[in-house]
């Protein structure tokens, strides 16, 4: 209670300047912040708006944190700039106690895990660094959460989906206190990422050959030997080893696999 009241009191000058209690009194009475007697005391206090604001602040000083929070909700609705000043002071006060992780970044990723790192933070007795993984653009519920001591500088979180974008939210926590969050956009590697590029490209070519062959049975116009010719002519080191494409061609010719004319454009697009 003392902390929230101190932040409200710290903005007394702004409250006296801008606040008009008559805009708040009915809502504060309805939400139980003021009782009937307190309502009348504020309403009849002094002769100026500032007098009534002074009376309201005097009553609020003895209120519990729940009642002060209800006052803040009404202030947010009717005087958002005043509420923002109080909340900014709250954030600055929190940062004095709970540091913000600096230079948060994606250190590495695999198909099912992310490693998030940050610079060494100042000592936080009893504190830790919490990293929550959210689906990218969705902050409703974390997918997974990891936590390490305040003296650590990275954490790895597994059990994620391959080729998926995530938001990693990093913050320092200590007891009930929660520091400001830093968001790091990250993405796990795809299933293809661990396949050597040469073999991945071979697989793509084979896939195109099969799709065209299945889609157009009976048409004969382009043989695998032609693929070898145009490949070695235009990209002689496409597959790393010439025997790779040669072996592929021999297998296809042996089985008398024929291709349609559109394959040439598809293959050249891939290469």
TrEMBL record:
SUPFAM superfamilies for this protein: DEATH domain, Fibronectin type III
Signal peptide feature range: none
Extract one GO molecular function annotation from the record: protease binding
What InterPro entries has UniProt attached to this entry? CARD, CRADD, DEATH-like_dom_sf, FN3_dom, FN3_sf, Ig-like_fold
Where the record annotates domain Fibronectin type-III, the positions are 100-193
Its BP terms in the Gene Ontology are: regulation of apoptotic process
Q: Which domain of life is it from?
A: Eukaryota
One Pfam entry name: fn3
The residues covered by the CARD domain are 8-90
Q: What is this protein called?
A: Uncharacterized protein LOC118419301
Q: Source organism lineage?
A: Eukaryota, Metazoa, Chordata, Cephalochordata, Leptocardii
Q: Report which gene this protein is encoded by.
A: LOC118419301
